[in-house]
Specification:
alpha+beta; Immunoglobulin-like; about 20% helix; extended
Amino acid sequence: MYCDLFLVAVNLLVFLAEYLYGFQKDKDVSSQLHIYGYKALAGEKFIMQCASPYHSHLFNLSESLEKSITWLRYDGVGVLPIDSESIVQQGNFLKFTNVEEKHAGDYLCYSGKERLHFRLDVIPRNGTGCKDHGDSQVTFITGKGGRISCPGVSCYTSPPEVVTWYKGDRSAKDLLLVGRDLKITGTVLLLKTVYLSDKAVFTCDFNYTDGITWTVRRLVEVAVVAEERELLPQILYPYKNCIEEAELGKPKILTCKVQFAFQREFKPVIKWLISYHNGSEEELEMDYCHEDHKSFGEKTITQTARLQQVNIRHLAASFTCFAQNSRGNVTSTLRLTRRPEALQRLEVIIAPVVVLILVTGASVVVQLYRMEIFLLCRAYLPFQVSTAELASNNPPIVFLISPRPYPTTSSINHPYAGFWFILRN
C-alpha cells in the first residue's frame, strides 16, 4: 500500500516538474499540452470532466476513476488548492456547485495514462453586453411535450452550427439509438412526450473560436410535475357532523387532515374556527402543521389546534375545519361531548382489579409447578445448587421408584419408561 502511494507521489512530482519546466521554457502552455477551453456563466452549476469536451459521455461516476485521477489548478506562477467548498470531485469530473469568477483559470488533470489541460473562463452576469442569458430551470407537465432551449446562445454574434445535448451523462444521440422520442432542431431540444424520468439535468455544449476553441457549456435543470387540476380540497378528517369525547378541565387536541390536488401556485390554508351558541365565531390558535403524505399529483396535510382546558362553553360550541386553495374552500364541523363519568370511574376500578388478578394467577402457577420450575432451572441454568442449600430451603422429598421390566408399547418412548415415582412433601 505504501509503495503504491509512493509511486503515485513520484509520478505526480515528475508530471508537475515537466509542466512547470514547459511554462518557464516556452512561456506558453499550448506548447506542452493542448488546451481545452470552457466558458461558464457565473452563479450556475458547471461540470468539467477529465476527458475531451467532445466525448460521447459527459461524465463517469466510477469510484475507481475518482481515486486514480488527480486535479491541479495553476495560475501561471504556482499550484493553487482546489476550492473544496464549491468544487467537488466525483468520478472523473469536477462539479462546481456555484461557479464564480474566482474559479477562472487553468486546470490540470492527471490520470496516469494521460494529462489534460483545461482553461476555464467564467462570464459575469452583469457588466457584459448580453441582456438575456436564458433560463437554467424549466418545468414540464408529464404526458405533454417539452421544449428546452440552449440558454445564452443569443449572447454570441453568430448562432452555433452544432449544439450537443446531454441528459445526465448520456448524449442525446445515444438516447435516440434506444428509441427515445426526442428531436434536436437548431439550438432547441424537443421532447415529444415528457415522462417522470425526464426530471434530470440537461446539458448543452456549443463551440466558437477566439484564439483557442472554446466550449460554451450550460446546464438546464428540468422539473416534471403533474397536470394541474382545478379541484377543491378534500377534508379527510373530521367527517361531517363528527363527535369526539372530551373531559372537562383537561386539554384537547383537534386534528384536521386535508388532501390537496397539485397546483403550481400552491398556497394552502387550513385553520380551526369555533362557533358559540350566541353566533360569535373566533379562530383557534394553531398548534402544528405537517405534511403526512406526498405523491405525484397530490399531498396530504394535517393541521392541529389545542384547547388548553375544556370547559362547558366548548361542549356547547361547534368546531369547524376550514381548508382553502386557489380553487375555493371547504369546511367540516366537529362537536365535543362530555365523556361519561361512569366510564371514567369504571376504568379506575377495573385497572387495579386486572393487575391483582394477573399477579394472583402468576403466584398460583408458581406454587403449583414449583418443583417443575426448580428442575428446569437445574437442567438449563448454568449455576449449581448444593445439597445443603436444597435441604435447607426445601422440605424433604421422598422418591419411590419401582422397576417396570416389561414396558408397554404406548410408554416405550416416555422419558420415565421403566420407572414410576411418587413425590411427597
